[in-house]
Amino acid sequence: MGFQYDVKAKTMDSTGATGIGQPRARIKAVYFVAGTAGYISFTDGGSSGVERLRVAAPASTAGNGSTSVLIPGDGIVFLGDPYLTISGPTSVTFFYG
To answer: Which residues pair with 27 in a beta bridge?
Structure first.
């Protein structure tokens, strides 16, 4: 049985282009460390692109909580380079292929 694609990981601690998908990528899972309440958002093809994923990030009273989100199926496809907006969490690790 062959594999569909390799899964890789990247960690970011600030908003910006992910640099993972030209011209295409699939986000498979997300893990983030909570700071203050907020959200993380992935848009397709830049900061003003179509939002494909938004996850609410709860506040952690100790400042060290974490949350993981597994995306079903083959993940969410991005036709352009995904752009990550971080508002609240201190870091985001995402898995892609």
So the answer is: 76, 96
Contact (Cβ atoms closer than 8 angstroms) between residue 15 and residue 72:
no
Question: E strands within the chain?
Answer: 8-12, 16-17, 25-33, 38-44, 50-57, 66-70, 76-78, 82-87, 91-96
Instruction: Please classify residue 25 by burial: count the beta carbons closer than 10 Å to its beta carbon, then call 0-12 exposed, 13-18 middle and 19+ buried.
Output: buried
Could you tell me which residues come within 8 angstroms of residue 69 by beta carbon, excluding any fewer than 6 positions away?
Answer: 29, 30, 31, 55
- In angstroms, rounded to a whole number, what is the distance separating the alpha carbons of residues 9 and 28? 10
Closest to 87 in 3D by CA, of 31, 33, 36: 36
In 3D space, the residue among 71, 60, 54 whose CA is nearest the CA of residue 35 turns out to be 60
Position 8 scores a pLDDT of: 93
Task: Flag whether pLDDT at 52 surpasses 90.
Answer: yes
Q: Is the pTM of this model over 0.85?
A: yes
Q: Are 88 and 38 in contact (CB under 8 A)?
A: yes
